[in-house]
Amino acid sequence: MGTEEPPAEGDDGSPFRSQSEYDASAMDVYEVVFSRWVVAPLRVLWSDYRGRFGLLLVLFYVLVGTVGVVVIPEPAVDPINRLLSPLEQPNLRYLLGSDGVGRGLLPLMAHATPKMLKMMLAGALFGNSLGVVVGLVAGYTGGNTDKILMTITDVVASIPGLPLLLILAAIIEPRNPYLIGVILTVQAWAGLARGIRSQVLPLRNVEYVEASRTMGQSTSTVLIKQVLPDLLPLVTLRFMSTARSVIFASVGLYFLGLLPYTSANWGVVLNSAYENSNILASFENAHWLLVPALTIALLTFGLTLLAQAFDQVFNPRVRARHEARKRADVEEDLEEDVDDSGVSQMGFQQ
Amino acid sequence: MSTTDTDEDGIDNDEPVLSMENVSVEYQDESILADVIPDSVADRLGMGEDPVHAVDDVSLEIGEEDVVVLIGESGSGKTTLGRTAIGLQKPTSGSVKYRGYDIQDVERGEHTGEVYTEDVRRALQIVHQDSDAALNPYRTIRSQLAEPLKLWYPDMDLNDRQERIATMLRTTGVTPAEDYMERYPHELSGGEKQRVAIIRAMLLEPDLILADEVVSALDVSLRIEIMDLLLDLQEMFGTSYLFVSHNLTNARYIADKADGRIAVMYLGRIVEVGSADEIINDPKHPYTRILKWASLPLDPDDARETITDESPMMSEEAPDPRDPPSGCRFHPTCPKAHEVCTEVDPDLIGGEVREHRAACFREDSTHEYWDSESIHGGDREIPL
Amino acid sequence: MSESEFATDRPQEDRDTILEVRDATVTYEMSRGQARVLNGVDLDVYRGETLGIVGESGSGKSMFASTLMDAVEEPGLLQGSITYYPEGADPVEITELEGGDTKRLRWEEIALVSQGAMSAFNPTKPIRTHFEETLSAHNADKDEGMDRARSIMRDLNLDPDDILDEYQHELSGGQRQRALVALGLVLEPEVLILDEPTAALDLLMQRSILRLLYNIKEEYDITLIVISHDLPVVSGFVDRLGVMYAFEFVELGETRDVMHEGAHPYTRALMRSTPNLAMGVDEITTIEGSTPDPINIVSGCSYSPRCPVADDRCSIEDPDLIELEDDHDVACFYPDRARDELPVKLSEDDSP
Question: From A221, B78, B86, C195, which residue has the greatest number of CB atoms within 10 Å?
């Protein structure tokens, strides 16, 4: 691979004076951006069985929460149709049976979904964003900033969780699901901040980050463009697990009666079922308990699978293979060039 | 001469591109515990070890399209000096001047109107030794090379950037350029990665690049290629280089081809400086002579002699940069050390700034060195 | 020039084989295809000699070292035979050893000091522990072993009282490398393999290590195999030199013969591209082309794409490693062309 002659030069003899051969339009740019940020990740997720299932499951819930609530009727008390078993009545309302006061279980689950999703989203976004920012700044800046931030983090993390929630719930009396989500994760960011910081510390002086600094990039740009990509697997994982913990925490709080009663919550339905279906004596009304339990379990499962699959998305080796496939579709003559240039794609110790 | 476009907006005075005057760099090697406790308490308890004198009173000038090779072993301070030169390390004392402007002053905003921190930052770049770690593994080559352009040439649009990146890739032999631009670093070989790292620095059209052991990790046949590439790029862009190397043969190759200088460092001091020819064929300082002796020849019989011959070094252990020897730092190892060498530390002797100089009393025929007793029981020869 | 002490100056009959490698091949299944990282290697290692193996990264030399210890990691597959001939005992087929026998072979008979002295020791344990654990893992007498260790360390210019209680980060690069060598020698193996013993070491330390290794070589009754990508390192040190390219040996012979009368174009190209103080800077050249891909095995001679003296035959037929002169094997159809057209200058006294 010798040094090639620079291409046709302009007046000054510098290779930079030549006319631009490229003529990408705005559409082309959007296409590339879309392909890189949407298509390629989706492809990676789809190719992994976990990603596939996780994606489908989560999308299913989103579908129910958006379209489903329009199609499926609102839950209504109906003493005549109490404790129906699933499929006993062939209509949408009672597809999954009904509870002790005649409300269809499917409508109950479906109409609680938007709220649950909002809670989860708010909680996961809040908890993680704050955690990432604190962890990044502390880990990268070091010095006194680091010490102060970590002290605050550790203090927040060591506040007893349940009493804190009790107090906050009592004072604020939240109704808005977004607000509930935030309150539920008021401590979650602390653990993530610690984790992020540990991962940032060795990156502070790694060569490519230093090169970025030397180039003159501002600290915020360095953090976002150079440091953050390495953290994305951790962040995504935490995002999913925080979302999961929001489900359980909210369920728990409703169970304990700390949040104002509403039937639009899977946990509340679960609680009623537990108390009133006589489940310990007979399985006759088991469906009342099982439906909300499964609803919770399936979403949790979907999120977990998705989190695992996301790890692949951020792995450049996997990304490269998927992007390469697309490249190969488009330009076959590059195949030969790749071989000639003798790129070593192994990581062998020779 | 330089063909860059910075001549129009760059500073144009008679000052050297970079000049370091009496630069010293000291830093603390803190124990973990001392790191956790507030400094005042740590000091009171006498924790925190002695400072490491990485660089001690070094002066060096680098001109336009110049090449200076810093050669030395680990602990010599060459890397620290290099990093100080390009502003990644603050000197503990002395000044580092970019085209006559002290970098620290510029950072404090003292020369607004003439020079700003950004100008300095852009003019001084680095290429690292480890090409694997020099590139962000999560980003494509194109996006990484677009960064400096986006930062410093905001008027360039996507197509212009694409064009320039492709041109640079072709110039350095990384072809087909379009294919490589979309790749991730793990899809490139070591030599290709190193080229990309060089391109990244060159895109800024800097005045000085610190090449920190850039060929040490590469295979032998690649080393020459990369060094030749750097010299070609120097002709194209007019950049100066500050090379750091621990290998005398590499240092000699590039200094010779570029008509540059070699500066030999030992324990934070420059002990000899001169052209490649002077350093290799007429080494004056005993340390330089020993380095040359230790550079293994290719001829098997010569090489065997070097291995089996008695070492001219008086001590095989490297001294501690935290506690350097008194007087001339080389005296414990120097086969020609005399009493006076344990008391006084010689400066570079032998001529003007650009001439062949060595920091050894033996260069001064009238020095009291010649009346002083040998500390090793008689001078030894260094077989060359 | 001094009187040569090269072991190969001894008459041929004195040399017997300690390791016999026949058709050693290592393959990996990758998504792109099958990768062959060692390609049908035949080699004899003689008892008591010092053999050097030189090659660039991607040539297969480290993989070759692993095969000698049957240490090819999964999912790599080793085929072929590697026979070890211990003194006064039955020959052992290394590839057929299992479990405890393999463990016994490794370190007690054949030891490996691998490259990267930087991270070979456990950072949380003092050096002493490594020796003790090695001794007990092989059921060796601890006191005797530690005495031996101390004596070896002294031979390597290390102060045992100083070094044994330190942690690896408290040692300098040179000290670490020497401590590793001592660890390799503590069970008195018959064969010691050194993979890049001087990489990442300073100039003066390199020479020191080579000097110390040379002493070991002279004083201990041991067979040494030194692997390096740096020709000058092995040139003065080894008795025989093997050059590897594209996962096989392309030249093998006495060091002086290989260096002065190199017959393979790659060998000569390698020497011409190694910067050396004796050569003028303009006499140093690069090797055109790029390193071979283990998956896309080139047909014919693997060096032919880059070879300046190759012709059509070279891209069709793959030359075997055959004896060219006495004790000098080369895998090339045109060794004379290589010698004529690729001048090599090793020292100032040489004429190219």
Answer: B78
**Which residue in C has a C-alpha nearest to residue A348's C-alpha?**
C58
Helix (H), strand (E) at residue B241: strand B240-245
A182 Cα distance to chain centroid: 16
Residue C224, amino acid: L
Angle at C311 between CA C309 and CA C315, to 5 degrees: 115
Cα-to-chain-centroid distance, residue B222: 20
Which helix H or strand E contains C328, and what residues bound it?
strand C328-330
Q: How far apart are CA A273 and CA A21, in angstroms?
A: 69
The answer to whether the Cβ–Cβ distance between A350 and C61 falls below 8 Å is: yes
What separation in angstroms does the CA of B363 have from each of A184, B58, B99, B366? 77, 19, 32, 9
CA gyration radius, chain C: 21
Query: What ipTM, to 2 d.p.?
Result: 0.83
Tokens of C55: 């090659």
Distance of CA A69 to the CA centre of its chain: 23
Q: What is the pLDDT of residues B301-338, one digit of tens each?
A: 888 888 888 888 888 777 777 888 888 999 988 998 88
Answer whether A346 touches C (CB < 8 Å). yes
Candidates B222, B230, B293, B301: best to mutate against C (most CBs of C within 10 A) is: B301
Domain segments of chain C as ranges: 15-238, 248-341
Amino acid, res. C249: F
DSSP A186-211: TTHHHHHHHHHHHHHGGGTT-HHHHH
Of B305, B310, B357, B371, the C-alpha closest to B335 is B310
Chain position carrying tokens 């680091």: A146
Distance, in Å, from the CA atom of B246 to the CA atom of B264, rounded to the nearest integer, reads: 10
- Provide the sign of the torsion angle of the four alpha carbons B316, B321, B326, B327, taken in this order: positive
Amino acid in position A45: L
* Residue A1 in contact with partner chain C when CB distance is under 8 A: yes
Q: Which two tokens stand for residue C217?
A: 């070589």
Architecture of domain C15-238: 3-Layer(aba) Sandwich (3.40)
Cα torsion angle, B167, B172, B174, B175, sign: positive
Task: Give the nearest chain A residue to B36 (CA atoms).
Answer: A147
Q: In what order do the strands lie in the sheet with C223-228?
A: C110-113, C191-195, C223-228, C50-54, C240-245, C248-254, C328-330, C322-325
Distance from CA of B198 to the nearest CA of A (A): 11
B158 to chain A: closest CA residue: A24
Q: Indicate the burial class of B194 (C-beta count within 10 angstroms; 0-12, 13-18, 19 or more).
A: buried
In the chain, the amino acid numbered C121 is F
Task: For C117-144, write each residue's pLDDT tens digit.
Answer: 566 788 888 999 999 998 888 888 889 9
Could you count the other beta carbons within 10 Å of the beta carbon of residue B111?
A: 17
pLDDT at residue A22 greater than cutoff 70: no
Nearest to C35 among A343, A346, A349 (CB): A346
Q: Alpha-carbon distance C3 to A151, whole Å?
A: 71
Multiple choice CATH, A111-323, 1.20.1090.10, 3.40.140.10, 3.20.20.100, 1.10.3720.10: 1.10.3720.10
Q: H helices then E strands: how many in chain B?
A: 16, 11
The amino acid occupying position C313 is: R
A155-186 pLDDT per residue, tens: 999 998 888 888 888 888 777 888 888 888 88
Q: Which two tokens stand for residue B125?
A: 């770049």
